[in-house]
User: What shape does this take?
Amino acid sequence: MSMPKIPLAQWIQTLVDWLSLHWAGFFKGVSNIISYVVDIFTYFFMLPHPFLFVIIIGILGYIANRWSLAIFSALGFLLIYNLGYWTETMNTLGLVITSALISILIGVPLGIMCGSSKLAAQIITPLLDFMQTMPAFVYLLPAVTFFSLGVVPGVVASVIFAIPPTIRLTHLGIRQVSEELVEAADAFGSTGGQKLFKVQLPLALPTIMAGINQTIMLSLSMVVIASMIGAQGIGAVVYRAVGQLKIGEGFEAGLAVVVLAIVLDRLSQSLFKGGRKQRA
Amino acid sequence: MSILEIKNVSKLFGPNAEQNAKLLDQGWTKEKMAKEKQITVGVNRVNMEIEEGEIFVIMGLSGSGKSTLVRMFNRLIEPTSGEILVNGKDLRKMNKEQLRNVRRKTISMVFQKFALFPHRSVLENVEYGLEIQKVAKAERRTKAETSLELVGLKGWETKMPDELSGGMQQRVGLARALANDPEVLLMDEAFSALDPLIRRDMQDELLELQDKMKKTIIFITHDLDEALRIGDRIALMKDGAVVQIGTPEEIMIQPANSYVARFVEDVDLSKVLTAAHVMRRPETITLDRGPRVALELMRERGVSNLFVIDRSKKLLGIITAEDAVTAMKTQQKLEDILIRDVPQVEPERMLNELFELVSTAKLPVAVVDERDRLTGVLIRGALLGALAGEVDNGEVNEYA
Assistant: This one.
């Protein structure tokens, strides 16, 4: 006895076709906004001379974590400049910052929703599992269908891949606020908003920041894949070098990604910690 | 009218709790509810009236439902059935806005583990209740500072909660609750997390504060000593139900059932009973009588001395049989042999403060009220008898 196959593939195809046909205006709008934001960031990163940028990043490193980070950041970016990947690295930085920003703007409120409603958590958690485990290539194609080639589908794919930690850790952070403190906030007659902004969010902040840090790292890890659909940047260099078996060049570009990753990681971690010390 | 009236309030956890609440009225026990309906009875048809200005202690062991009960007084936990009247208005019928107002203005809470906001300074913690009411910054600062001064934490405003000791943290908790100037203070095991010495200090300070403020305080504790020390009235809970409500004396002397009796049997009675509980009726005489009458009275009553009072029962002094005999022989009047320096105590004096006085005094100790009137006499045997639990409902024993 043969079991009829569920035409899942066909359904998805139909849905994607329908969306790209009837929602074209919407996607066009989103696409414009995203590419505009990426352009702005990239523009600002390219604005100062690379040496000035190195000094700025060194100062940021010093503020965040004293000399060790300052020296590492400055030397790392000098190396990138020296190897000749400055423009590509700045393009990538623009893409990463944009997708991190979008992830935070969408992820934190979703995490708060999960924290305040069990139903929301029950719906969103499996979706997150889905987003994190579904191979990225699978949603790369529909992203291209909706947003055409270029940096925008790269950002969208990065967001899909990178947003889960922000949502999960915001949810966790809010859930971790001790029951008694929530009770105290209620007992004094706080409104929901007052409880959220004066008690829950400040106390969840360390955890939320850890999530945002993870999100930045994950979106950086998407740059090579994003380059396959035409996103410019250091990922494209890696992709091209690998395609042409240029091992040395591929290693150089890969090194630039590593530098970027470490600097972004340390900066995002310690900028927050500095803020916390100030508070205490 | 009582400031807080609790009428038939129950809290059930489990499936269809609302519908099944009626079963309690039909006499279902906690066990039966658990077995047949999978329902846990947290609080079982509690009734109490809390009067303005009293310290009302709700006491019971852990799991007796006392914390659940007190959380229904400001609806941190929603009651399943019953009425909670705050100044005559049913808390359960209020909408969110009205409930918030009650929480902001009428009922404040102090928590067992302090529940201070760790990211806010001491002052900011105390200000919290005012801040969310959008009280102007300068005004709430003044109020918070006053409140901190009241609990003895002036000068600690800028510290963070984790820089303070447990006792001080709970003072902040208390100051935070007082800053709103509430009518009712709910204190949930407020001193249980503190070590015994600090705890005693806090109890004393609470009583001192209460003398000044005259708030209505509902105090939850599992510690009978604490309950007896600070409570004007005590409600004893077991398995979610109230077993007995009464003054500390009533609970000690007339336990409502064997559970209460077992609960209180280890308590040091000397810290609960007062002079009024153990005093006996004094034998008296007025000054216009002669020594012969006095001697006759002593012989008749089997005592060796008599208290002398005036017509308004005011204590004048004491005469002894020995002196009376001498007076009779030398034709003296009672006034001449009157010993005016009689040891006296007030009726409210605790028993444990009386032992020394009674055992060292050569004359019987008089119990005298605030208008100097003689109300009783303390006798060594009666004191010891009281400690052994032989108190006759706290009333003055007939003494022949």
